[in-house]
Design goal:
Strand 1 and strand 2 form a beta hairpin. The protein has two domains: about 140 residues, P-loop containing nucleotide triphosphate hydrolases (Rossmann fold), CATH 3.40.50.300; about 60 residues. By secondary structure, the chain is of the alpha/beta class. It contains six helices and nine strands; from the N terminus they run E-E-E-H-E-E-E-H-H-H-E-H-E-H-E. Helix 2 packs parallel to helix 4. About 30% of the residues lie in helices and about 25% in strands. The two termini are about 35 Å apart. The radius of gyration is 17 Å and the shape is globular. The structure holds adenosine-5'-triphosphate. This is ATP-binding cassette domain-containing protein. Keywords: ATP-binding, Nucleotide-binding, Transport. It holds the Pfam family ABC_tran. It comes from Sessilibacter corallicola. GO terms for molecular function: ATP binding.
Length: about 210
């Protein structure tokens, strides 16, 4: 059974006429595939292709299959893919709770209960009314993770989400993110420059030239 699998089949991306990426890999449930390589080698471009927002300067072939469904031509909002970036990108005009409710389907029952539970699970129980600007970098990362989990993605893409954190905090947040990905049995692609991220991840490690 290949449920909860992200298949990247013969992905070929060019920038103008210039080949940038050729790529073929399968990421299983709970696995984190690490993508490393020099600046400009196409790491973020691969994530943009998987998520469905490749800029028009690029041309691409190949299939993105998520849980056996070909999502290659679906718009980003229909792909059920969660993203975390270097910046937590919290809405500054909303409280922590407001940020989390925003990510939660309006038709869900017990929305506040779900927010409380997810805050507990990322170690920030009771932070509901806090202004995101008053949170530390690590706390903001935890809220960004909570928001991602509330949106119930079927796969997760991480673009250097730990790189602004100091090394101890980085290890702590990385362990939390990997634990949640494993528990939810999600396939994940992690772009990073840090070999410690790659060592901590369970899954294939790819180097772009
Ligand atoms: N919208 C765009 N238009 C034209 N070229 C682009 C565009 N976006 C990215 N590029 C180019 O595509 C190449 C790959 O960029 P990409 O951001 O994927 O690299 P990266 O490996 O993620 O780099 P970094 O480690 O610095 O984040 C680079 O040469 C970049 O300049």
């Amino acid at each position: 059974m290949n449920k909860n699998t992200l298949e990247l089949n013969n992905i070929e991306i060019k920038l103008g006429n210039q080949p940038l990426i050729y790529f073929n890999e399968e990421i299983k449930a709970g696995e984190v595939m690490t993508v490393m390589g020099p600046s400009g080698s196409g790491k973020s471009t691969l994530l943009a292709y998987i998520a469905g927002f490749l800029p028009e300067e690029f041309s691409a072939h190949g299939q993105v299959i998520l849980n056996r469904l070909d999502i290659t031509r679906l718009p980003p909002e229909k792909r059920n893919i969660g993203l975390l970036f270097q910046d937590p990108l919290l809405y500054p005009h909303l409280s922590v709770e407001g940020n989390l409710l925003f990510a939660l389907d309006k038709n869900k029952k017990n929305r506040k209960g779900k927010v409380n539970a997810i805050l507990e699970s990322v170690g920030l129980g009771g932070f509901n009314k806090r202004d995101p600007a008053t949170l530390s970098g690590g706390q903001q990362s935890r809220i960004a993770l909570a928001r991602l989990l509330l949106s119930e993605p079927k796969a997760v893409l991480l673009d250097e989400p730990f790189s602004k954190l100091d090394s101890q905090l980085r290890a702590e947040i990385r362990a939390l993110v990997f634990e949640k990905i494993q528990t939810a049995k999600l396939p994940c692609v992690l772009v990073t420059h840090d070999i410690e991220d790659a060592n901590a991840a369970k899954g294939p490690c790819i180097h772009f030239a």
